[in-house]
Known about the structure:
By secondary structure, the chain is of the alpha/beta class. The protein has one domain (5-267): Rossmann fold. It has helices spanning 15-25, 37-42, 48-52, 67-70, 85-98, 105-110, 115-120, 133-139, 146-160, 170-181, 204-213, 215-264; strands spanning 5-8, 31-34, 56-59, 77-82, 163-166, 193-194, 271-272. It has a five-stranded parallel β-sheet, with helices on both faces. The chain is globular and about 45 Å long.
Amino acid sequence: xxxxxxxxxxxxxxGTTLNGVFDDNLTRERILDLYTESxxxxxxxxxxxxxxxxxxxxxxxxxxxxxQILDGPVNFRVFTFLRDPVQRVISEYYFLKRWPxxxxxxxxxxxxxxxxxxxxxxxxxxxxxxxxxxxNSLSGVRRSDLDEGLELAWHHxxxxxxxxxVLERFDESLLMLKRLMGLGSIFHEKRxxxxxxxxxxxxxxxxxxxxxxxxxxxxxxxxxxxxxxARVDRLGxxxxxxxxxxxxxxxxxxxxxxxxxxxxxxxxGVLINPK
Length: 275
C-alpha cells in the first residue's frame, strides 16, 4: 500500500512557503488538503483506501489520538516544522489581527485584543490561544497534563515522525525534506509574510509573559533544535556544501521574484502573498 506523507502544519511555521514547494512538485490530484471547514467535513466521506492513494495529506489538523495517524489503517509518513515559540506566537497574533480573512480578525479587532490579552485571556475564544500550541498539536489536544504532553510530543517528534524541520534552519530542513520525498525544484519565494515594518517592538514584559505561557513549547523546541543539529552533523560536509550552494542560488531567485511582485503590485497591503 502507498505510504502518503502527512504534513501536520502548525500555524506560522513557514508552512505556506512549504506548500508552495509541494504544489510545484505534486499535481493537485495527489494532494488532500485539510485547511477549511468544508474540507474537514468532506473527509467523513473519504475511505481509507482513497486516502492511501494520495501522495500527501496536509493541513491545520488537531489530532486528539495520534494512534489513528501513526498506527491506523493508513501507513502515514508524518512530518512537521517547528519555530521559536515566542516568535511563533507573536507572528500568529499579528497575522490573525491584520488579515481580514482570518477567522479571528473580527473578534480581535472589535474587542481590541492586545498581544498580552491574546496569550492570557480566559474567555471561550482565547482560552487555548497563544499557549503551548506546538506541544498540544504534537501530543493530543485533549491532554491537560502538559508535563505528560511534552514527553509524548517529544516521543512523536524524535521516534515516530518521519521528519521534522526547524524554521530557523529552513534551508537545511528543506534540503533534508527534498531527499526524503524525492522532490525536484525547491526554490521558493517567501509566502504568508507580514510586512516587516508593521509590528511595534515587543516589550520585555510581553516577552517574559509569552515565554512563561509557552514554557513547555520552549522546552520542546530546545530539544528539537539540539536533535536537528545532531542530524545535520551526521550528514557531513557534503550536505553543508549543498546547503551553501542552494542558499546562494535561492537568494538570487528570491530577489527576482520580489522584483516581479513589486512591479505587479502584489506586495501591497498588510500581508505579502497571504494564504
